Amino acid sequence: MTAESPIPGSINLRPATLADAPLLRRWDEQPHVVASDPNDDWDWENELARTPEWREQLIAELNGEPIGFLQIIDPAREDSHYWGEVGPGFRAIDIWIGDASNLGRGYGTAIMRRAIDRCFADKNVRTILLDPLIENVRAHRFYQRLGFRPVGLRRFGQDNCLVHQLEREYWKRGKE
Ligand SMILES: CC(C)(COP(=O)(O)OP(=O)(O)OC[C@H]1O[C@@H](n2cnc3c(N)ncnc32)[C@H](O)[C@@H]1OP(=O)(O)O)[C@@H](O)C(=O)NCCC(=O)NCCS
């Protein structure tokens, strides 16, 4: 696990709203975002208009400027049952940085650390799940540096993924 990345400024997470739809659609067209998630339509206009209890859709801001998107779901209650039959005690995260000029500057690490703390703030959450594409080896490295470990290959729709997970105890131990 890495120490907190030194980044120039402060990261803030705020709820995404319908007003963010144009920005999210623009980010969706960036090659690095397409490469990481080529088959999903996030249907922003509809999804941002609703706030189910099992989901948080968040905009990550650096010094007040939006730089990335984060989704945290409770896979047991998520309505499409994307993760299949999952018991309680899990969260699943999706993340991307919007503009390529903001990649590789430590922002993703800072955002993920916030996101992980946010998930484990609920004492019932034991495990965080991620579903990077098999070929997204840079994302694997990024997640593994944070303490996630690969747990197996799994196909979701048209996507072949290398599922990663992080256990609460491992994360808390790394922070001691
Ligand atoms: C993965 C991601 C959120 C990491 O955020 P970041 O701010 O770029 O990451 P940091 O600067 O904190 O850490 C750098 C690491 O991020 C990863 N990374 C950087 N650019 C990346 C890219 N285009 N795609 C995937 N991972 C990338 C690499 O592991 C990199 O380390 P490396 O330089 O040793 O290869 C960001 O790169 C991104 O949005 N990538 C495209 C979308 C994506 O792959 N999301 C994950 C889908 S599961």
What features would you describe in this structure?
- By secondary structure, the chain is of the alpha+beta class.
- Helices cover 28% and strands 29% of the residues.
- It has six helices and seven strands, in the order βαααβββαβαββα.
- It has helices at 21-28, 31-36, 44-47, 107-120, 137-146, 168-175, and strands spanning 11-15, 55-62, 65-73, 90-97, 127-130, 149-156, 159-167.
- It has a seven-stranded mixed sheet with strand order 1-2-3-4-5-7-6.
- Strand 6 and strand 7 (159-167) form a beta hairpin.
- It is globular and about 35 Å long.
- The termini are close together.
- The model has no long low-confidence stretch (mean pLDDT 95).
- Bound molecules: coenzyme A.
- Residues 5, 32-33, 36, 95-97, 103-109, 130, 132, 136, 138-139, 141-142 line the site of coenzyme A.
Category by helix and strand content: alpha+beta
Major β-sheet annotation: 7 strands, mixed
Secondary-structure element string: EHHHEEEHEHEEH
> Roughly what is the average pLDDT, rounded to an integer?
95
Helix count from the secondary structure assignment? 6
Identify the bound ligands.
coenzyme A
- How much helix is in the residues? 25-40%
- Uncertain runs are none
- Cα(first) to Cα(last) distance is 12 Å
The tally of strands reads 7
Molecular shape: globular
Strand content: 25-35%
Rg from Cα: 15 Å
Task: Going across the biggest sheet, name each strand in turn.
Answer: 1-2-3-4-5-7-6
